Queue: 2 jobs
Job 1
Amino acid sequence: MYPAFPDVLRAIRENLMRELMPELTTDYAREQATGTLLFIEHLLSRWDRAVETLREENDDLRRTLSHVDADAEAAGAREVVPRGETGERGRGAAGSGDELSAENRELRARLAAVVVSAPDGSVALRLAEGFMVRQLERELAAVAVGALTWE
Amino acid sequence: MRDRLAAFLSARIGAPVRVLDLARKSGGGSRETWLFDAEWEEDGQPRRRMLVLRRDPTASLLESEHSDREREFRLLQCLQGRGIPLPKVEWFERSPEWLERPFFIMERVPGIPTPPTFPSALDGALRERAARDFIDILACIHRLDWRKAGLEFLPGLDGDAPPAAVQLEAWRSLYVKERLAHEPLLDLALRRLAERLPDSDRVTLVHGDFRTGNYLIDETGRITAMLDWELAHLGDPMEDLGWACMEFWSGGGRACGLLEREELFRRYTEASGIQVDRDRVAFYELLGNVKMAIISMTGMRTLVEGRASDVVLSFVGFMIPRLLRAIATQLDVGR
C-alpha cells in the first residue's frame, strides 16, 4: 500500500492551506502560496489525462505528417517533410512522459518545416493548419481545468 | 536585504539611512519589486521618502537585450518633465556588490495598480477618466521629439529597414533561442508577418507595453504614473495601438477594458494629430500576440530549467493557448 499520486497532491494542498498559509506573515508570501494552491488544484484535475493528451497530440502529428508525405509523393515532389534524427516515421512507440515529450519536439519541428516552406494554398499547409486547430482545442481544454485565470 | 539596502542608500546619500516597511510585491514577471521608506537626517532635520526598488530576478520573463535595466533608467531620466506621469528615478546600480543583482530605485508615486484588463466592476466615470489619461499619455509619448529628448540610444532602428522589420527580427530571434519546442502557429504567424511587413510614415518613441496593468490610478481614475518601460524603443506609433488592442487585455468589448477600439482610434487621432492606419495596427496586433506568446515561453523556460521559482512564471504558461487562439483568429486558420 502506498499513497496514490492524487492522494499526495491532496495532502500537499491540505498542508499548505491549513499549516503553512496561516503562518505566513507578508502579503507577498500569501500571494505566492495562493498561486501554488491554484496549481495544485489544476494538477489534481488534470494529472491522470496528461500523458494521454500528449500521446494523442503525437498521434495526430504523425498522421498529419504522413498525409503531407503522401500528398507530396502523389504529386511527384521530393520529400517535403525532413526526417527526424532517428530517420523513422510513424514510430509511435514512445511510452514514458519523457519519451513522448522528446518525440513531440521532433514531430513539431518537422511540422514547422512544412509550415515555413509549403506554398500558400497547398494541401500540405492546409493539413498543417488542420493540426493547429485540433491542437489548439486540446490545449484550451487543458488550461481550462481548475481556477486559473489571468485576472 | 534591509541592511544591505540601507548600506547602499547611506553611501549614496552620505548619511546613515534607515530602511522601514520593506515589503516585496507580487506581479511584474520581469523583475522584483520592493516597496520601502527611507529615513535619514539632513541638516539636522529628519527626512523620509517613499521609494521603490526594482531588482533583476535570478531569471525572468524576458531575458534578453529587450529589457536592459540601465537603458530603462536612462530613458526615465530623459522623460522627466515632458508631460508623461512617471516616477522620478533616483539611483541605478549594476554592481552585484550591494544587492547581488542590478537594480534601480525610484520614488513611490501615489496610486494603485490595476489588473491587465480594467475591472468592469469599477464605476464608469472612473473608467472614462482613466481612458482619457490613457489616450493623452499615449499621444504625449508619440508626439515627443525623441531626438531633442536625447533618446537616440534606444533600440528599434536599423538603417533603412522599416521599424516593423526590426521588431519582427528581434522577436523571431528570441523565439528561436527560447522555445522549448516549435509552436506551429507561431511559425505560421512569423511567416505571415514577414510577408506583410508595413512601412511607417514616422518614427516615434514606442512604450512597447502600453496597456492597462502598467499604470497606477488614484481614487478618481486619474493615471498617476505610467510604468514598465523596459520594452521601450523607437519605432512605429501604431505598434502601441496594436498592443493595446490585443484581445488578451480586452474586456467588455473594450480595448484594455477602457474603451471601444474605434473610439480609441478617434480620440487618439484627436489627441496626437496622428492618423490611425488600421492595417498597420492589425499587423502590430498580430505581432503583439506573437510577442506575448514568446515572452510567456521565455518565462516557462526559466521555470522548466529550474532557474526561477516565482509562481507568476508558472501562470504565463497558461496564457499561451489564449494567445494562440487570438493568432489563429487573426490568420483565419481553421476557417
Note: The interface with chain A takes residues 23-26, 115-117, 119, 180-185, 187-188, 191, 248, 310-312, 314-315, 318-322, 324-325, 328, 333-334 of chain B (CB under 8 Å).
Job 2
Amino acid sequence: MLGVTRRTRIVTVFPAVALGAHLVLGARGSVEAIHERHAAADAPVTPAYRELLEGIAVETSTAARVLVLTPDASTRYLYRAFLASSVLFPRTVVWGAVDPSTSEVAWSVRVADVRALVASERIDVTVFDHTREEPTSGALAIDKKAPGVRIVR
Amino acid sequence: MRAVLGAIAGLAVILAAGLACLDRCRKDDRSPGLDDLGVAYALGAAAVSVLMFWAAWLGHASPWPVLAPVLLVVFASPRRWIELGRAWRASIDRWTLVAALALALLMAVNVVLTRPSWPGVDGVAIWGFKARVALRGEIRASLVDPSRPWSHPEYPWLVPLIEAWFELVSGTRTESAGRVAQMGFHAATLLLVFGGLRRSVSLAWSIAGTLALGLLPSFVYWSTFEDADVAIGLAWAGSVIHLHRWLARGARSDALLAALLAVVAAWTKREGVVALALQGACFLAVAVHSRRIGPVLPIAIATLVVLTPWWLVISSCDVVPRDFLPVRIENAHLDRLPWIPILVGRELLSVTHWALLWPLVAVALPLRWKERPLLPRLYLVTSATAPLAILSGTYVFSTWPIWYEHVRNSFERLALQQAPVAVFFVTMTLAAPRSFMGAPGGRDVKKVILLVLGVLCGVYSLAQGAYLVLMLMGRAESNSTRLTASAGILCLALGVTLTLFKAALRAPGPPPGGAVGPSNKA
C-alpha cells in the first residue's frame, strides 16, 4: 500500500516539477540567448556602407562586374560581401580578401595584387571595404577608414 | 507609416488566404480554435509564395497577382466569413482570451528584445538575396548565375518569397521587412502549439506547454533570425498535430490538413522532404492496416500545385549541393557512425540551448508506450524522435573537411525544427499522468524504461561494432590505440546493454488480469 501511495505522489508531482524546472532553466537561457543576439548585432552593416552600395547601383549599368575587397573572410565581412551581392544584383559581384584564411572560404578569392585581379576578372567597379591598394606593389592592405570605391570606365 | 500599414496589410492577406484554404479543408469539422490561426499562417504563406513565384517567374513584380485571387475568394462569399466570425466568437471563452493575451505579451516581449539584433548570414545571403531577385522578376536568371553558388539556388522558395511579399507591400527594400514574416512564423508556432494542446488537455497545461516552447533558449535565439528553421518547424508541427488527430478521431479534414502542411514543410526547406516521406509512410501504413483511405485526390493536387515551382527551380539550375555528397553507399563515411550519437547527444543535453526539453522527451517515451489506443500514441512517439534520428544520419555524407564542426554548426537548427513537436509530445504525456500509470500494463513502466535504454545502448553497440569492423578491414583510419579503445568501448557498451535487458526481464510485469490504477487501489 505504501508503494502505491509513493508512486501516486510521484506521478502527481513529477510532471509539475519537471516542467517547472524546464521553465526556470529555459527562462534563464532565454535571457542569455537575447544577450548573445545583441552582442552579434554590434557588427556588420553601417548606413554609410549601404548608401555607398546604393550609389554604385545607381551609377553603373546592370552588366557591370563589381569586386568587393575586405580585410578578411570573417562572418562580419562575409555579411557585407553578401549584402553587396544582394543590393547590386544582377551585377556580378566577386569577393576578395587579404587574409590567408580566405583560402578556406570557397566563394572568396585571396588577393595578392589588386590590379592583376581587376584585369583577370574584367572588373568595372572596385569597392575597398576597410582596405586600400598599395600604390607601388598593387597589393591589398588593411585600412580601418570608411569604405571607398573606384569605378573603372 | 507606409511600412507599418503595408506590413499589417501583408499579414492580413496571408491570414485571409490561409483561412480560406482552411475553410475549404474543414468541411466535416467546424470547431475553430487558436491553432487555426497558426495553420492559416502556414497555409496562407504557402499560397502567397506560390502566387508570388509564378508572378516573378513570368517577370512581374506587383502585388496584384496575389491580391486579386485572395480578394476574389474573400468577396465571393461574404456570408461565409460572417458565419466563421460567429463561430469564432462562440468558441472563445474568457480564459482562452486571457491566455491569448498572455501569449501575445510573450511574443511581443520576445520580438522587442531580439528586434535590434542582426538578421543572420542566411537572412541576407540566401533568403534576402532571393527576395530581391524575385522582386526584380529575375528568378530564372539567378538560378543559372555562376557567381552566387552561396545562395543555395536549389533550395525551396517559401521564405524568400514571403519576405519579398512584405518588401513589396511595405515599400521597403531591406531585410527589415523580412523580420515581419519571421515574427509571423514565430507567433503562429506558439498559437498552433497552444491551440493544439487546448483541444486535448486543460487550459493550465496548454499555457505551461506553450511557455515551455516560448522560453526555449534556442527558439528565442533563432526566432527573429531570418532563417527558415522556425518556419519549417511550424509546418511540421501542424502536420504532426493533425495526423495525430486523424488517427485518434478519423476526420477526413485532419488527414487533408496534415498532408497539406507536410507539403508546405517541403516547400520551406529541404529537410521537409523527410517530413513529407514520414507522413506519407504513416498515411500508407494506416491505409493498408485499417483500410482507412484518406482524401488522396485533393492531396495529390495540392502536392502538385505547391511543389511544381520547386521542381522547376531544381530542373533549371545545375548546382551540386555544397554541404553533402549524393546519397549513395560508396559516398557514406560509415566510420562516423559511433561519433554521431555522441555529438548529437551532447547537443541535445545542452541546458543552455534546450533547458530540459530533450531529457523530458527521453523520459516521456516509455511513459507513452503502453497507452491505448496504440496507433496515435505510437505515431506521436515516432514523430517526436524519428526525423531527428534520420537527419543525424545524413552527417555520414557531410563534405566538410572537419565533419564534426558541421554537426556542431547545424544540428541545433535541425533540432529546433523538431522542438514544437517535442514540446507538444512532452506536454501531452505529462498532462495525463494517470492515463499512463493507470492504463492496462501501466505497472510495468520500469520494465519499458529499462528496455528502451537497452535498445539505445544496443544501437550504440552496433554502431561501435561497425566502426571496429571497418577499421579492421582498412576502410577507416586506424592505429593500435584507436583499435584498443574502440574494442574496450564496444565491450563496455555490450555489457551495459546485456545488463539492461537482463534487468528489464527480471522487473515485475503487470499482475494477472490487467493492472489496476493507483487511484483504484488507494
Note: Residues 436-443, 510-522 of chain B have pLDDT under 50 and may be disordered.
